[in-house]
Amino acid sequence: MENELAFSSLKNFLENRLQCTSNQIVISKLSGGFSNITFLVQTPQGKFALRRPPFGEKISKAHDMEREFKVLAALEKAGYSKSPKPILLSTDESIFGAPFFLMEFVEGIVLRNKLPNGITFGQSEFKKLSENALDSLLELHHLELEKSGLIQLGKPEGYVQRQVEGWIDRYFRAKTNDLPEMENVAEWLKTSLPQVENVGFIHNDYKYDNLVLNSENTSEIKAVLDWEMATVGDPLMDLGTSLAYWAEADDPDILKMFNMSHLPGNMSRQDVIEYYAARSPLDLRNMLYYYIFGLFKVAVIAQQIFRRFSMGFASDPRFASLIHVVIAAGKKAEQTIQTEKI
Q1: Locate the Aminoglycoside phosphotransferase domain: which residues (predicted)?
Q2: 210, 285, 300, 311 - which has most CB atoms within 10 Å?
Q3: Contact call for residues 131 and 156 (beta carbons, < 8 A)
Q4: Concatenated DSSP letters for 151-197?
Q5: pLDDT for 58 beyond 60
């Protein structure tokens, strides 16, 4: 599917919409995440990014291209400055094997598990990036919901309970190994639900490798990517997921593969909580619960992808190691329950 022949019908579809001929369009796959696939589309009019679901078995509604496109359109209407502008959507699977959409391509640097060639980050840059990342997350959580129409993209009532039950169900449906710690954490999450819920627009996968940084000022955030799980829900669930990705220096190495927050200069997880609390009206005294939920969710995402790999639906060699993410995140969550320390 990922060859020039497969691109021919896509190029034919795009030529009129991008005001160029198909032979002027160059399409290449961008390296990066573990979920939906992003392609770079180069034309005489400029560069664009194209998003489509992963090849093979679909995991969940997270791969709903039409919904992600609507999220970007609503964020643009709401005035959020760091989401790529949506351009066009196609639900015709005959064109590229699945629904897809085109959006603005934002030039810049993306930090994954190592620094890009020629890029250096000192402690001061990481400190400022930590602050800017949280400021951008807070901006998202404080967006107006009603007039912008963002409220239509989620159901905030009962959000926390639905998420907890949903991710537990996903784990057991994707389970491949007997991991008692995951089952212990699942039971704790069900019996320890918070009594108060908050409402805001949330990203649900917010971490450094979903940020595009300014190459001239590397601590400046130009755009936030991967809006496939964005919705209206409890912002503390969003913060909890970010904390789960926010690895520290003494965390297991396997949990450092998603975020470079473990390097000197970055805030600690406790610093993150205090920084957010000082700029938000929300009560963060129960962040332990949301952090444990975040760890469980990260483990389940890894488990789902590992299951696809083990069943032959995905061939990316990176996926073979994801069972170790499940194990490490599960143990970290269980340990956090026991020590009550984030």
Answers
A1: 27-259
A2: 300
A3: no
A4: GGG---TTHHHHHHHHHHHHHHHH--S--HHHHHHHHHHHHS--S--
A5: no
Does 273 have pLDDT greater than 50? yes
Residue 115 lies in a domain: no
pLDDT at 50 over 50: yes
Element containing residue 100 per DSSP (H, E): strand 100-104
Best CA proximity match to 144, nearest among 79, 203, 198, 236:
79
Paired residues of 51 in beta bridges:
38, 101
Whether 133 and 212 share a structural domain: yes
Q: Rounded to the nearest 5°, which phi and psi values hold at 211? A: -115, 140
Nearest alpha carbon to residue 96 among 20, 19, 14, 22: 14
Our measurement of the distance from residue 130's CA atom to the centroid of its chain's CA atoms, rounded to an integer in Å, reads 17
CA distances from 94 to 61, 79, 229, 280 (A): 20, 34, 25, 46
> What is the β-pairing status of strands 26-29 and 46-52?
unpaired
How many residues does this entry show for the chain?
342
pLDDT single digits (tens) 97-117: 899 999 999 999 999 888 888
pLDDT at 166 over 50: yes
The CATH number of residue 172's host domain is: 3.90.1200.10
- The whole-number pLDDT of residue 33 equals 58
In a domain, 308, yes or no: yes
**Rounded (5°) CA angle 312-1-87:** 115
